[in-house]
Amino acid sequence: MRAFLLILTAPLHSVKRASLAGWIAIVIAAMASARAIDLAWKRTESSETGRARWIWATDDVKTENPATFIASRSFSLSVPAPVARAKVFVDRSYRLVIDGRLVGAGGMKPGDPIDTIDLPGGLAAGDHTIAIEGASPSGIGGILFALDLPGAGRAVVVSDAAWTVGGKPVFVWGEPPMHPWGFPGLRR
To answer: Are 62 and 100 in a shared domain?
Structure first.
């Protein structure tokens, strides 16, 4: 009888071990999924440009030709914003104009940090227009833009499908991180 019990308990131990191993694998997979989701949310929340998208004048770049264009967007503020900060990244060069006033210019390449431009005097209540003149020697590039207005929020106005070039909608490459630009960080 004792031998029979030993023979009977051997498969039970094997089944218990397999079951335990299965449960451990499920728990590890669930924890890894939760961690991946948590990291994705943290990355989105820590993004310097919020929900901004990479935009450009066109996706029709069959041949490399120099390109210059102006992407623009209008918005309204119901209350004045005494402090305002623009964050802009343009591969290869840009001029940032707000309400007809040049507020910044520069150029970047993949891997460079984003430019931050504090707008002296902020923005008054009312209608405003943002225009970014983008240029690229190859015709290929990307614009990423966000406007922070303390009191109203971070990334209140962002580069997205609401922008136009010559009255036509911009082409939206997608959201950061995107090859080759990634997730531009701030200058240290």
So the answer is: yes
Q: 11 and 82: one domain?
A: no
Query: What is the pLDDT at residue 41?
Result: 47
Report the number of distinct structural domains present in the chain. Answer: 2
Same domain, 11 and 64: no
pLDDT in tens, 59-77: 887 888 999 999 999 999 9
Residues 128 and 85 in one domain: yes
Residue 44 has pLDDT above 50, yes or no: no
Sign of CA dihedral 10, 14, 15, 20: positive
Locate tokens 């309400």: which residue?
99
Range of the domain at 142: 54-174
128 touches 75 (CB < 8 A): yes
Q: Tell me, yes or no, whether 180 lies in a domain.
A: no
Highest mean pLDDT among 56-60, 109-113, 118-122, 130-134: 130-134
* Residue 175 Rama label (left phi>0; alpha psi -120 to 50; beta): beta
CA dihedral of 148, 150, 151, 153, whole degrees rounded to 10: 30
Residue 159 lies in a domain: yes
What phi and psi, each to the nearest 5 degrees, are found at residue 74?
-110, 155
Read off the pTM: 0.75
Structure tokens at 156: 């209140």
DSSP E strand stretches across 52-178: 54-56, 67-77, 85-98, 101-108, 115-118, 126-136, 142-149, 153-158, 164-165, 168-169, 171-174
